[in-house]
Amino acid sequence: MNRAAPGRTTKRQEETLNSSGKTTDAVRLTDVRKVYGKRDNQVVALDGVTTQFDRGTFTAVMGPSGSGKSTLLQAAAGLDQPTSGSVLLEDHELSEMNETELTKLRRDRIGFVFQAFNLLPVLTVRQNVTLPLRLAGDKPARGHVSKILDQVGLGERKHHRPSELSGGQQQRVAIARALISDPAVVFADEPTGALDTRTARDILGLLRHASETAGQTIVMVTHDPVAASYADRVLFLADGRLAGALSSPTPESVAERMTHLGAFVDDGPLPRLEPTRREQR
Ligand SMILES: Nc1ncnc2c1ncn2[C@@H]1O[C@H](COP(=O)(O)OP(=O)(O)OP(=O)(O)O)[C@@H](O)[C@H]1O
Ligand SMILES: [Mg+2]
């Protein structure tokens, strides 16, 4: 796979610029705050986050446990209402949408891989994966479903139920389910957390491929500097605030930043998945 040269726009970005003249951001957060709990028990999970995710880009979100990563993803995907601030997704202001409109937008435009996989235990792998399509009233094309299941390495397991799968296999079902409807934006909360190195590499390659060829916008939470190096950019969160960004990340540059955030203990050389494309060039 060839990585687009820095500064070069992807196909989807060019189309967006040429045809509509609209901005290239798929998601834009402005001064987003999320406070959980009441008075004495308040937790400020997000403390005024302003950022954007351009169309066709792959962003990794990193930060210590409890820094607000999952909260950020859920706010950006319209799964959780921020206490204040604005979230624009493809020119829709989420705070102005009612629950029915939000459900439709999430169903049609957004794929979400949850930190806990949220699979339905009574459905098979295939039924779990095709659920978003069937909820939308679409009949899943057999070839398309098989292709996605093969891509995540579950072609042989499609008639099994989640309880019959390993943690990593369940995670791959959740990833297939997020990709099945060809969403414009995919939010993935630690999608490779439960995977072995080889499977993780395959999934990361799949996400990168989706951003490069299909022009999908990928936002992925991860604790792993190697996984983050597959992204175009890394955003760092600390205590609910943005604590920096890194373009063209390498495992080493990410690990160094994380060490400074106190989120990552540097204890020797990093395990390698594969050279990133930048290193191959
Ligand atoms: N429903 C909730 N009610 C109260 N506090 C919450 C709730 N959800 C999250 N929090 C708090 O908000 C803060 C941010 O949580 P969040 O889940 O976004 O962290 P995170 O960065 O995803 O952490 P991790 O890496 O452990 O998944 C934490 O202090 C957490 O305890
Ligand atoms: Mg989390």
Helices and strands, with pairings:
Blueprint: H1 11-20, E1 25-36, E2 43-54, E3 58-62, H2 69-76, E4 84-89, E5 92-93, H3 99-109, E6 110-113, H4 125-135, H5 142-151, H6 167-179, E7 185-189, H7 197-213, E8 217-221, H8 225-228, E9 233-238, E10 241-247, H9 251-261, H10 277-280
Parallel strand pairs: 3-8, 3-9, 6-7, 7-8
Antiparallel strand pairs: 1-2, 1-4, 4-5, 9-10
The protein binds adenosine-5'-triphosphate and magnesium ion.
Describe the structure.
The protein is α/β, with parallel strands linked by helices. The protein has one domain (11-280): Rossmann fold. Helix content is 35%, strand content 23%. Strands 6-7-8-3-9-10 form a 6-stranded mixed beta sheet, with helices on both faces. A 4-stranded antiparallel beta sheet has the order 2-1-4-5, with helices on one face. A hairpin with a 2-residue loop joins strand 4 and strand 5. Helix 4 (125-135) runs parallel beside helix 6. It is globular, with a radius of gyration of 18 Å. Magnesium ion is lined by residues 69-70, 115, 189.
- The strand order across the widest sheet is 6-7-8-3-9-10
* Rg measurement, Å: 18 Å
Q: Give a quick account of the main beta sheet: strands, pairing sense, barrel closure.
A: 6 strands, mixed
SSE order: HEEEHEEHEHHHEHEHEEHH
Head-to-tail CA distance between termini: 11 Å
- Kindly report the name of the CATH homologous superfamily: P-loop containing nucleotide triphosphate hydrolases
Task: Please tell me the total number of domains.
Answer: 1
Oligomer: single chain
Shape: globular
What structural class results from the helix and strand content?
A: alpha/beta
Q: What are the segments in which pLDDT stays under 50 over at least 5 consecutive residues?
A: 1-22
- Report the top-level CATH class: Alpha Beta
- Beta-strand content: 15-25%
